[in-house]
């Protein structure tokens, strides 16, 4: 592979090139991930790394049903006029490892049973067959694995 081809190769759940960002390789599937996309730094992680896909395949024997919601539940917290004016009208809550907003027209999302963060199905390789199973996000799976 030429240097130009290597620069254009996409990796990770963000589906972006290496970009001089620190990366880690899954010891099972050999896919590469940016540390910042999976929510860790090299210093925080010790031992072998398994991506969430490989960890969730290993976890499939522990099946408990968890409902999947197409749209995240919003907390009802009244904002003061100062808080309302300080927020841009175009700002939206960011979710997932991709740090993108929810798009009702195209996104299905699932909430991590552990940390309660929302994830886009496409970003984590989630599908309808997994919808009735428990879900732990990549950072939570790796923390559980360490314990």
TrEMBL record:
* Record's subcellular location: Nucleus
Tell me the domain of life.
Eukaryota
Q: Quick one: signal sequence residues?
A: none
Q: Please provide the record's keywords in A-Z order.
A: Metal-binding, Nucleus, Zinc, Zinc-finger
- Can you quote a single GO CC term? Set1C/COMPASS complex
Under the heading PROSITE patterns, the entry gives: ZF_PHD_1, ZF_PHD_2
SMART domains documented for this protein = PHD
Q: Can the keyword S-adenosyl-L-methionine be found in this entry's annotation?
A: no
Domain PHD-type: start-end pairs? 9-57, 93-143
GO BP terms: positive regulation of DNA-templated transcription
Asked whether the keyword Cytoplasm is assigned, the reply is: no
Q: Which PANTHER family match?
A: CXXC-TYPE ZINC FINGER PROTEIN 1
Q: What is this protein called?
A: PHD-type domain-containing protein
Which species does the entry assign this protein to? Answer: Steinernema hermaphroditum
Q: What is the lineage of its organism?
A: Eukaryota, Metazoa, Ecdysozoa, Nematoda, Chromadorea
